[in-house]
Amino acid sequence: MRKDWAHRMRELLAPGGILVCLEFPLYKDLKAQGPPWGLRGVHWNLLAVSGDGILDDPGEEMEDAQGSFERISYFRPARSYESGRGTDMMSVWRMRSRHIKS
User: Which Gene3D superfamilies does this chain map to (predicted)?
Assistant: First the structure.
């Protein structure tokens, strides 16, 4: 359902809008049972690469990714869930200009 989520985010985001994601749990292995499922690299794959979000390895985040979204900010939140504190991240995304609907 991850790819469906990314597609829906593209549909819902207004032109010029931003998408803010709390990425958790990042501490959990991608192959571990869930929920919650490990998400390290998943948002990058879905949004920056337009992949399917099904990863065995988080891979490398590359500046020249050509997906529907570009990440404009990435930071550790001041507050998060106890279990993920110190590993969770906030990401802020916008549509790449070629994907903005008129």
Answer: Vaccinia Virus protein VP39
Best CA proximity match to 58, nearest among 43, 70, 40, 34: 40
Burial 47-67 (b: 16+ CB within 10 A, else e): bbbbbebebeeeeeeeeebeb
Tokens of 55: 């990863």
pLDDT at 98: 66
What CA–CA distance (Å, rounded) separates 30 from 8?
A: 23
The owner of tokens 């571990």 is 32
Does 3.30.70.20 match the CATH number of domain 2-99? no
How is the chain split into domains, by residue range? 2-99
Of 9, 31, 37, 19, nearest in space to 74 by CA: 19
pLDDT tens-digit profile of 71-99? 999 999 988 878 777 889 999 999 997 65
pTM for the full predicted model: 0.85
